[in-house]
User: Fold this.
Amino acid sequence: MSNEARVDSRNMADHLHSVAIHLLRKLRREDESSGLNAPRLSALSVIVFGGPITLGNLAAVEQVRPPTMTRIVNALEEQGLVVKKKNAEDGRSTRLSATTAGKKLLMEGRNRRVRSLARQIDALSNTEQSILREASRILATVVRAI
Assistant:
C-alpha cells in the first residue's frame, strides 16, 4: 500500500470517527425525555440486548468499576427497570435482567433516535440516500472486522 493510500485511509478513519461521535451526541438529545442519564441508559441497553448478565460482566462491558456499576444497577432496580436474580449456575453471583418496563423505555428511546435520524435522511436526495445506504453497508462490514 502506498504512503498516499495510507494517509488517505487514516484521514478517512479520522473523519468517520468524528462524524460517528457527532451523530451519536446529536441523537443522544432524544434520550433526555427518558428520564435516565447516559450511564443508566447505556447499562440498560446492555442488559436488554445482552442480558441476562452478571454485574461483573456488565461493569466490564461498560468499562467501569463494579462499585460504580452497583450504584447504576441499584438505581435501575429502584425504578423498576431491571431485576436481580440469583445465578442458578453460581449462587455467589447475581444475574441482571430487564423488566418489561425497562425494555419498553429503551425501545421507545431507540425509536425516537431512529425517527430523528430518518427525518434527516428523508431530506436527502434519492442519489444521496442510495450512496448513504451503500456506505452504511460497507461501514457495517468494517465494524464487524474490528
Notes: The mean pLDDT is 91. The radius of gyration is 19 Å. Strands lie at 53-54, 82-86, 94-98.
